[in-house]
Amino acid sequence: MSDKQGVYRFSFGPWNIDEGADPFGPPVRQPIAFADKARKAREMGFHGLQFHDDDAVEDPDRKSASQIENEATEVRKILDQEGLVPEFVAPRLWFAPETIDGAYTNNDPACRQYAIDRSKKAVDIMRILGAEYMVLWLAREGTYIRESKSPNEQILLIRDAINELLDYDKDLRILIEPKPNEPVDSAIVSTAGHAIAMGYMTKDPARVGCLIETAHSMLAGLDPSDDMGFALAHEKLWSVHLNDQGGLKFDQDKSFGSYNLRHAFNQVRVLDEAGYGHNGEWVGLDVKTMRTQKQEVSWKHLSNSLKTFQFVLEKVRSLDKSIQRQLIQERDYEELDRYILNHLMGVPY
Ligand SMILES: [Mn+2]
User: Fold this and answer.
1) CA neighbours within 13 Å on the CB side: how many for 224?
2) Rounded to the nearest whole angstrom, what is the distance from the C-alpha of residue 135 to the centroid of ligand 1?
3) Do residues 163 and 207 make contact, with C-beta atoms less than 8 angstroms apart?
4) How close is the Cα of 347 to the center of ligand 1, in Å?
5) Which site in 178, 271, 277, 306 is 20 to 30 Å from 229, CA atoms measured?
6) DSSP letter string over 229-263?
7) Rounded to the nearest whole angstrom, what is the distance from the C-alpha of residue 63 to the centroid of ligand 1?
8) Which domain covers residue 273, as residue numbers?
């Protein structure tokens, strides 16, 4: 790794190079094969890839254990060829008919069992790939109609499901990725605070941490750097999904720093000052291809996000701490604001 990148390892998921379909229109680009995405990842300077279970094994619900093993092994070979590390596997618990009304919190016990069985398959896939941990985005654990579920019971059902997974694999580490809404109106594990508290409720809190995504914090009306700081203080920030978001809209997954460079600066600042990455923590870039982007340059959002991280990291490390300290001492925060803006714009102070 170059000095420029410091200790950081960067990753993204195969879904981050997409065909541009949205709820209002069809795909506008051709699919790109996984092997080509992996090659592109290496060429752009990434160190790893992230997976949903079905990014590695298509439709695992319909596959036998040996089919799962064969398909995941093929993916592992491609990763090895490119020198890439699989960061995590996340069970896709929001697509099957059984998860229409939620996965672990479904009102139908048979559907809850499906969700647990599917998650165990994801653990198996994780082990075959050699991924470092599981990420749980609890997409449909919540409600559209308040009276359809008990908020109290939902929390306990999620805890019980996590406990069952911790029992299933004694080395399993689970990172909860909170998001306050979308697809459901209101999610039950909606913020960093909820995710970390959920970890403490499980039978082995040392194996449950969290992943903070920029856009998800913003959708909760919170500052992502504060959420990261909160999780760091709990020693629970085990991964991040950096991207950007233009306020309280749908989950945009814009390129990192694309809307708010100062927000990007403060996220990298809180990470770098806390020594994030020194224990191998990943910097995931969960950014989405713009629908208007042409096929042949449909990965620029990834290389741009990586470049922005490196640029902002340089800004974080070149900040004159003595000026910052002095202005804090003088309680001249208007001047501190001026100094930060000048620094970000490259204007001499
Ligand atoms: Mn997102």
Assistant:
1) 32
2) 14
3) no
4) 33
5) 306
6) HHHHHTT-EEEEEE-B--SSSS---BPTTSS-HHH
7) 29
8) 3-318
Ligand 1 centroid, distance to 124 Cα (angstroms): 26
CA of 217 from ligand 1 middle (Å) equals 10
Q: What is the pTM of this model?
A: 0.96
258: Cβ contacts below 8 Å, ≥ 6 apart: 244, 304, 308
What are 41-79's pLDDT values in tens digits? 999 999 999 999 999 999 999 999 999 999 999 999 999
Same domain? For 268 and 337 the reply is: no
Distance from Cα 251 to the centre of ligand 1, integer Å: 5
Pairing of strands 142-143, 186-187: antiparallel
271/329 same-domain check? no
Q: In angstroms, what is the span from residue 178 Cα to ligand 1's centroid? A: 10
Q: Give per-residue burial for 252-274: e unless 16+ CB within 10 Å, then b.
A: bbbbbbbbbbebbbbbbbbbbeb
Task: Quick: pLDDT tens for 284-293.
Answer: 999 999 999 9
